[in-house]
Amino acid sequence: MDHGHLPAAAGRRRALSTAQPDEEVVMRYADGPTTEAETRVDADPVAVWELVTDLGFLSGVSTEMQRAAWVGDAAPGPGARIRGEHRHDARGEWTTVSTVTGWEPGRVFEWTVEPDQDGGAAAVWRFELTPDDGGTRLRQWARMGPGPSGLTEVIATRPELEERIVAGRLREWQAGMERNLEAVREQVR
User: pLDDT digits over 132-173, tens only?
Assistant: First the structure.
């Protein structure tokens, strides 16, 4: 059965889950706003897993993450660390260290960016894979904050623009996720 390309979950940006449909949602960094994208891939979860856990593949697709590598000799898995080198026109270049916080082969790959001693993270990113009629339902999800990040530095300089800054960054993340999912779909064809 040809499912075709299912649209990504555009517009799925959340800041406050208590908002009613007709209420304006205020996106504040401290509330941990999220975004996600989802598609169906015509390959089994094993093949999709190989791609979403291949840091070289992911950095080759991204316009922001320039390089990523596993840190040290530890095998990829829970607690493993990832060093990422990033570039953004508005911020320049920076490096992150992430910790794998979810690792269920063939199902979940999650990493937490620069968790601090209080448990606050700059971000959490996750791929979820679900078998789907001979293929895989692939979802990428991310949450901002609540720990310090480059975005909190920008917000601190213009706090009156926080909602616009957060919304703009979520749109960038959304576009990147859609690019990632499309690259996975294309690679396994």
Answer: 999 999 999 999 999 999 999 999 999 999 999 999 999 999
pTM metric for this prediction: 0.85
CA 173, 61, 189, 8: dihedral to nearest 10 degrees? Answer: 10
Burial of 140 (0-12, 13-18, 19+ CB in 10 A): buried
**E strand spans, 42-184:** 65-70, 81-88, 92-104, 108-113, 123-132, 135-144
pLDDT in tens, 4-37: 433 334 334 343 334 455 556 678 999 999 999 9
- CATH superfamily assigned to domain 30-187: START domain (3.30.530.20)
From CA 139, how far away is CA 184, in angstroms rounded?
Answer: 11
Sorted by where each begins, the domain ranges of the chain are: 30-187
Alpha-carbon distance 96 to 177, whole Å?
Answer: 19
- Cα distance between residue 188 and residue 25, in whole Å: 38
166 to each of 15, 31, 90, how far by Cα in Å?
10, 11, 14
Two structure tokens written together for 58: 């992911």
